[in-house]
Amino acid sequence: MKWRAVGFVSVVVSVVVVFAVAVYRADHYRANVHSYSPPPVVVAKQLIPKGTTGSFVLSQSMYAATTLPAKELEDGAIAEPSYLNGHSAAVDIHPGQQLTQTNFSGLVPGPVVLVATQPILKGTPGSIVVAKGMYRPTVTPPQQREVGAISDPSYLTDRVSVAEIHLGQQLTEANFPARG
Fold first, then answer.
1. Is the pTM value of this prediction over 0.90?
2. Domain boundary, last residue among 109, 142, 167
3. What is the Cβ-side half-sphere exposure of residue 79, based on CA atoms within 13 angstroms?
């Protein structure tokens, strides 16, 4: 009889321990579910053309930080906008598209050139081009860089365009010569 009592007590203790562990795990699970927040991700607010520098994307707020369910995150999704510094768009990135290390990769390989984002009429002051953001800095391979391509917007401040500049055309010293 004594062994039966010990066995019965052991079963009761085991049931109580299993029940206590189950209650603890359920509470722990509920606490984790309520404290879970989806991971952040950076998405494009507008078209980011191939070659656009990350610093330009940041300065023009061409992105939005948001959260998405984990199952919708793309591999290599960028969570921190500061990652874009020193990088350039490797492909065209469309509005709503997640910025990833693949489509926004590659360190800026060298000099940047300014490219018109809208037509610039002959006689337009460079200061207006800069103030209205009528350009974007773009990484261009050396063989595609035009002679006298401008890479620093401050170059334009005291100059005027002497020719009509089309959308996507590089801004050059020939189109914005020194006054004199």
1. no
2. 109
3. 9
